[in-house]
Amino acid sequence: MRLLHNYQYVAAMLLFCIGLYTIIVRRNIIKKLIGLNIMETAVFFFYISLGYLDGGIAPIRVGGADPSRMVNPIPQALILTGIVVAVSVTALALALVILLYRQYGTLDVDRLFRDEEKEPESGTERGGTA
Amino acid sequence: MKSVVSLLFIAALLGLLLYVVAYMPPMGDPENPTNSSDVTTRYLEKAEEETHTVNAITGIILNYRGYDTMGEVSVIFCALAAVLAVLGREKRGKIYAYADRSRVPSSVIVRTMVAFLVPFIILFSIYTILHGELSPGGGFQGGAIIGASMIIFTTIFGLYESSERIPQKLRFPLEGSAFITFFVVGVLGLVGGGNFLTYAWPNIATDLQPAVVLWLTILVEIGIGVGGAMVLISILFSMIREEEEIAVAP
Amino acid sequence: MGAYRHFPIFMITLPILGAVLLPFLGYLRQKWVPWAAALPLTASTVLGILLIGKIPSDGYLSYHMGNWEPPWGIEVRVDYMGLFLMLIVCGITLLAMVFSRRYIAKEVSGGRLTAYYVLFLLMSGAMLGFVATGDIFNLFVFMEILALSSYALVAITGNRNAVRAAFKYLLMGAPSSIMVLLAIGFLYSATGSLNMADLAGRISESGYTEVLIVSYILFVIGFGVKAALFPLHMWLPDAHSIAPSPISALLSGLLVEVSAFAIIRITLSVFTSGADNLIGGTLDAVGIFAAAAVLYGGIMAIMQKDLKMMIAYSTVSHIGYIFLGITALTAEGLTGAMYHMLDHGLAKACLFLCAGSFIYVKGYRRIDDLKGAWRQMPWTCFAFALASLSVIGIPPTAGFISKWYLILGNIEAGNYLYVVILLAGSILAAVYCFRIIYCMFFQTGKEGAWEDSAHDASISMLSPVWVLSAGTLFFGVFSYLLIPSLLKAAQYLL
After folding, report:
1. pLDDT of residue B249
2. Does B85 contact C142 at a Cβ distance shorter than 8 Å?
3. Which ipTM did the prediction report?
C-alpha cells in the first residue's frame, strides 16, 4: 500500500502531531517551544522527502553529473528559508520566555495565565503596575 | 480532561494527515508532479549556465528565487529587532569586569579545546560561505556556524571576553548588511537594464555577463553570511546578559 | 509599460530598507527617528497613488523578479484588488505612525523607541509584500515577517500583561504558520509549481484531489488563526487590547484583514472558484464559523467593561462579516468583503486611536470612566461616534455600503440565514456602540473627573483620528467612485 511506500511522509506526519500535542498539552513553556521546534522539523523533513528521486544524486554539477538523475533542488531551497524563519521565531519566543520568567517567576503556563480574568486596571497602557 | 480532548483532536489530525499521505504521489518516483515538472528540470539542466553556480540549490536561492532570500534576510533582521525590543542590548564596559569568568564551571581541558577550536570553526564557516556555489553551503549556513562558534565561546569564557572580540561597534553597522546588500544588488539590476534583482544585466556585453553574475552572487553571499552572523551574535549577547548581570554581585 | 511597473517592488522594499537604516539614525540623533520613519511610508503611499489608474479592474501588473519568467522566478503581481488593499495599508499605517509619535514616547523610551519604529516599518513593508506577491512560498515568507513583528510589537511596552498576551499570540500564531507551510508542501507535492497563476492551471488537471482538499483545509486553518476567525480567535482579545493603541489599530484594522485577503487569494487565484469539489465543503464550514463569529463577537463585545477589549471583540465580529462575503462566492459578496476591509480598517483604526487618546490624556480604559467625556475631549468623542456609525452600518457611512453588498451577495447565493445573521450583527453592534456613545455624551462623570486643565488630545494625535473618521464618511458618500470597478474586479477573479 502506498502508506508503506511513503514511510518518510508517515514519519513526518507523526512528528508533526507529536509536536502539536506537546504544544497543546505540556504546561512548561520551554517544553511547548520544543514542541514547536519538533513541528517545524517535521515539516522540513516532509519537504525534503518530497524532493527525493530513487537512486538520485546531489544536485551539484561536478564531474559530469547527470541532471536527470539529480534530486529535486526546489524543496531544499525552500527549506533553507524555512529554517531561518523557524530560528527567528524560536529566538523571539525564547526572548519572551526570559522576560516572562523575570516578571512572573514561573515557567508553568497554568500559573502564568491564572489571573488573566482580571481586566487591566485604569492607568496607562501599563495597566497600573509596570 | 484537557489532555483527553487534545489527544482525540491530535488523533483525528493524525488520521487526516495519514489519509493524505496514503494518496500522495509515491516518494522517489521520477514521474511525480514535483520531479517531472518543467520547473525542476529546467533548474537542474540550466542552473549552471544561467546562474554560473555549480550548486543548483544556491542558484535557486540566490538567483532564481532571490526575492525569497531577501524576505528571509528581512525575517532574521526582524527577529533581531524583536529580541532587542523585548530584551534590550547588553551593557558595555565596566560592569562585566567582575564577571570575567562565566558561571559555567569548566575544566582546563574544555577551555583549552574551545579556545583552540573556535578559530578553525570560523575558518570553516568562511569556507562554507564562499563555497556556496560549489558545494553544499551558502551565505546563511556560514553565518549560522559563526554564530554557533560564538555560542560555545561565550558559554565557556563569559560574555565579557566575547564582547571584547566582537564588540558592539563592529556588530551594529553590520547587522543590516544582508538586506542592504540585497537592495543594492537589486537596484544595480535595474541600472543594468533588467528588473529588480537581476544578475545577468542585459545592458552589458554578453561575454562580460558571467563575471558579473558570479561576482554579484559572491557579494550577496558574503552579505548574507556576515549579516546573519552578526544578527545571531547580537541576539545571543542580548539574551545571555541576563545571567551575567545576576553574576555580578556588587 | 513604463517606469511605473517598478513601483510595487519599491513600495515593498523601501519600508524594509528604512527599517534597516533606522537604527543608524537612532544612534546619531534619536529625536529624528519618528520623522525619518514616516519617510519610507510616505514614499510608498505616493508610489501607490501614482499607480492608480494604471491597473485596469480586470487586469494585473506582473513583474518578474530577476528577469526570470514565472514559474522559474518569483512574480510580483498587483491586480486591482491588490492595489486597493495596498493603498489601504499604506494610508492606515501612515496615519497610525503619525499618531504614534506622541503616544509611544510616553510608553517606551530610548533604544526601544527606535526598535518600535523599526518593527513598525517592517510590519508595513511586509503587509505590502504579502498583498502583492504572486508566488505562494513568498506569501509564507512575508507572513512570517508580519507575524514576528506583530508579536514583538504587542510586547514592546514590557508590561507583564503585554508580554503574556504576546506569548499567547505567538503560541497560537507560530503553529498556524507551520500549518501553512505544510499546506504549501502538500500543494507543491501534487502540482510541482509554486506560482499562483501556474498553480491554478495545474490544480484543475491534477488527479490528487484528496491531497488538494486537505491542503486547502490547512490553509484555511493556518490563515484563519491569523485572521482570528472563530473559533481560532482566542489570542485576539488579549493581544489587541493590551498592545499599544496604534499597534492595536494596525493589528485589528489591517493584519487580520490582510490574512483574510490571503484566503481570498488562495481560494480564488489558486484553487479558483470553479474547483468546487475541492473547496466547497471547507467553504461551507467557514461560512458557519463566520456566522458564529459575527454573533459571538457581538455578544462578547456587549459584555466587556474595558474599552479596548470591547473594540477587540468587535473585530472578531467583523472578520465574520468579511468571511461571509467570501463564502458567498458572488461578485457582490466579494465586493462587500473588500469594501468592508476598507471601512473596517478605517473605522477600527479610528476607534483604537480614540481609545489611545483617552488613555494618553487621562489614563482611562474602562467604559465607566468615560462618562461625560465629551465635555473635555469633544473632538475625540465625535470621531469615535462617527466611526461607530460605520461599524454599525448606518447610511451614509462606508459601513453601510459594505454591508449592503454583503447582504446582496448572500441573497444572490441563496444564503438567507446569513443575511439574517448579518442584520443581527448590526443590531448587536448598535448595542455596544450606542452604550459607549451614551456614556460619553449623555452621562455625567465622577466629580472632577473631566474638569482638569488638560484639553483634548494634541493635533498630531487628533488629525489621524479625524482623517480616519472622515474617511468612513467619505467612502460612504462617494462609494460610487470605487464600487463599479470593484465589482468588475471581483467578476474577473471569480
Report:
1. 40
2. no
3. 0.91
* Chain B contact for C144 (CB, 8 A cutoff): yes
Give the pLDDT band (50/70/90) at residue B246.
very low
Instruction: Please tell me whether residues B60 and B89 are part of one structural domain.
Output: yes
Task: For C191, name the nearest residue in chain B, comparing CA atoms only.
Answer: B33
- For residue B80, pLDDT beyond 90: yes
pLDDT confidence of residue C3: 77
Chain A residues within an 8 Å CB radius of C158 = 99, 130
Cα C18-C21-C24 angle, rounded to 5 deg:
140
Q: In whole angstroms, what is the distance from residue C241 CA to residue C259 CA?
A: 19
CA C365/CA C452 separation, integer angstroms: 18
Could C175 and A74 be called an inter-chain contact, meaning their C-beta atoms sit closer than 8 Å? no
Nearest CB to C206; choose among B33, B83, B190: B33
Q: Using the beta-carbon criterion (under 8 Å), do C148 and B75 form an inter-chain contact?
A: yes
Q: Mark yes or no for CB contact A50/B27 under 8 Å.
A: yes
Shared-domain flag, residues B3 and B121:
no
Which of B10, B30, B46 is the endpoint of a domain? B46
Q: What is the pLDDT of residue A121?
A: 43
Q: Which chain B residues have a beta carbon less than 8 Å from that of C151?
A: 82
**Domain count for chain B:** 2
pLDDT tens sequence across A94-116: 999 988 888 888 888 888 877 65
| Residue B179 at interface with chain A, using a CB cutoff of 8 Å | no
Whether pLDDT at A126 is above 70: no
CATH architecture for segment(s) A2-51+68-116:
Orthogonal Bundle (1.10)
Mean pLDDT of C278-287: 83
Residue B143 has pLDDT above 70, yes or no: yes
Total-model pTM: 0.92
Q: What digits encode the pLDDT tens for the residues B84-130? A: 998 888 766 545 544 445 556 778 888 899 999 999 999 999 999 98
Closest CA to C357 of C463, C431, C238: C463
Mutate to test the interface with B, among A20, A60, A97, A101 (most CBs of B within 10 A): A60
Closest residue on chain A to C180 (Cα): A43
Distance, CA of B1 to CA of C380 (rounded, Å)? 48
8 Å CB contact between C485 and C57: yes
Clarify whether residues B85 and B130 are in a common domain: yes
Query: Cα separations (Å) of A94 from A112, B152, C108, C246?
Result: 16, 18, 21, 25
Query: What domain range is B22 assigned to?
Result: 1-46
pLDDT digits (tens, 9 = 90+) for C349-359: 999 988 888 88
Q: C348: which 3 cell numbers? A: 477600527
